[in-house]
Design a protein that fits this description.
With 383 residues, this protein is α/β, with parallel strands linked by helices. It folds into three domains: 65 residues, Orthogonal Bundle (Arc Repressor Mutant, subunit A); 137 residues, 2-Layer Sandwich (Nucleotidyltransferase, domain 5), CATH 3.30.420.40; 159 residues, 2-Layer Sandwich (Nucleotidyltransferase, domain 5), CATH 3.30.420.40. It contains 13 helices and twelve strands. The protein has a five-stranded mixed sheet with strand order 5-4-3-6-7, with helices on both faces. Strands 10-9-8-11-12 form a five-stranded mixed sheet, sandwiched between helices. It has a two-stranded antiparallel ribbon with strand order 1-2. Strand 8 and strand 9 form a beta hairpin. Helix 1 packs across helix 3, helix 2 packs across helix 3 and helix 9 packs across helix 10. It starts with a helix and ends with a helix. It binds zinc ion. The site of zinc ion has 5 residues, from loops.
């Protein structure tokens, strides 16, 4: 689909709380005069509005003003999984939640059809807001996933395996759900979304980075190479959780043995650790760590030490500027980062160990939301 300049400007403005001409020129990679004439046409046609940057009212006279799309206020829906539940939230263009709903997560094999109920609720919530309109729903999948193809079906359902992938259907989720609801639906791996959010939130552009997520639902990672997400050919790109550490280790739900995620679970299990927490309840560990529990801090640092080796190998291949660790666990993440740094220092080549920065995400727990807005704008950025 080829979009005209006016369509690109309008779509970019639609997902923004307010945008100026310089941002449009920079983000859409257009010459400033092209943006100026496009904005003039769209203002004259009443499709864009100039509003006061501080007060959001129609701009009068000189002073800083920003551009917004006219018509109902656009809403963006974000669907994600947390602790056995699927949660759907409506966001306004300031990326603030305005409504939310949650229900039991659908069976992983139910595919796109399993998400129809929660998206219906989201559509109903949006319909209760006459001044707003839902345009786009982003589905953030905590599993390997490739847009247009869905999830790799290969996974084990043997009994007694830990909870595995939340989505295991190989189908075009976006096409199916878009046809069902008449909305734009974008399905993406959750770590990829968060990495995208982090990439665009930074004033200094990052072109090469590894983004790591560590939470109750597992470990995920995303790779940004040469400025773009590296998704791989089957959606498995960046699935660091399933890197093998031990050929004879415990069986994993991916069908492999001794995967990194299984080893992390062993570390956090009561008995091997001096904490009374769920086997994979990293939030509980983080809370104990914040209360200066030395055992919890040790387990988090051990997780970091375990992650350091595969991250060192990955970094030797990719030579990233930075490894960014998601911050949904709060300050406790610093213990994980400290552990990564220790292993990194001895297991990565000196040039890599010295030059690759290790950072906590600057976005707190909002990276995924920011990423959802950015991915909605991906098509207009490219034109
Ligand atoms: Zn595995």
């Amino acid at each position: 689909m080829i979009l005209s300049t006016d369509e690109r400007v309008l779509e970019y403005a639609r997902f923004s709380g307010g945008v100026d001409r310089s941002e449009l020129a920079r983000e859409l990679d257009l010459p400033q005069p092209t943006v100026v004439s496009s904005v003039r046409r769209l203002l004259a046609a009443g499709r864009l509005l100039a509003v006061d940057a501080e007060q959001g009212r129609a701009a009068r006279g000189p002073g800083r003003h920003v551009l917004r799309a006219s018509g109902p206020k656009p809403l963006l829906g974000l669907v994600g999984w947390r602790g056995g539940q699927v949660r759907a939230t409506l966001y306004d263009t300031d990326q603030q939640p305005v409504a939310a709903t949650q229900r039991e997560a659908p069976a992983p094999r139910s595919g796109a059809e399993g998400l129809v109920g929660i998206i219906e609720e989201l559509v109903a919530q949006a319909a209760r807001r006459p001044d707003a309109a839902l345009h786009t729903v982003v589905v953030s999948v905590p599993a390997p996933f490739l847009r247009g193809k869905g999830a790799p079906r290969e996974h084990s359902t043997l009994r007694d395996l830990p909870r595995g992938f939340h989505v295991t259907n190989a189908e075009d989720f976006d096409g199916y759900l878009a046809g069902r609801f008449g909305l734009t639906v974008i399905t993406e791996n959750d770590a990829n979304l968060a990495a995208l959010g982090e990439q665009y939130a930074r004033t200094e552009r990052i072109d090469n980075a590894i983004y790591l997520t560590v939470g109750d639902d597992g470990i995920g990672s995303a790779v940004i190479a040469n400025g773009r997400l590296a998704r791989g050919a089957h959606g498995y790109g960046g699935e660091i959780a399933h890197l093998q550490l031990d050929r004879n280790g415990p069986l994993c739900h991916c069908g492999g043995r001794g995967c990194l995620w299984m080893r992390v679970r062993e570390l956090t299990r009561p008995g091997s650790a001096a904490v009374e927490a769920d086997p994979t309840n990293l939030s509980a560990l983080a809370r104990l760590s914040d209360g200066r529990d030395p055992g919890a801090q040790r387990v988090l640092a051990d997780i970091g030490r375990m992650l350091g080796r595969p991250l060192g190998h990955l970094s030797t291949f990719l030579d990233p500027e930075v490894i960014i660790v998601e911050a949904t666990l709060g300050a406790a993440v610093d213990h994980i980062i400290g552990g990564i740094a220790e292993t990194f220092a001895v297991e990565a080549p000196p040039v890599i160990a010295r030059n690759v920065r290790l950072e906590r995400s600057s976005l707190g727990n909002t990276a995924e939301v920011r990423g959802a807005f950015e991915i909605a704008r991906e098509a207009v950025r490219r034109g």
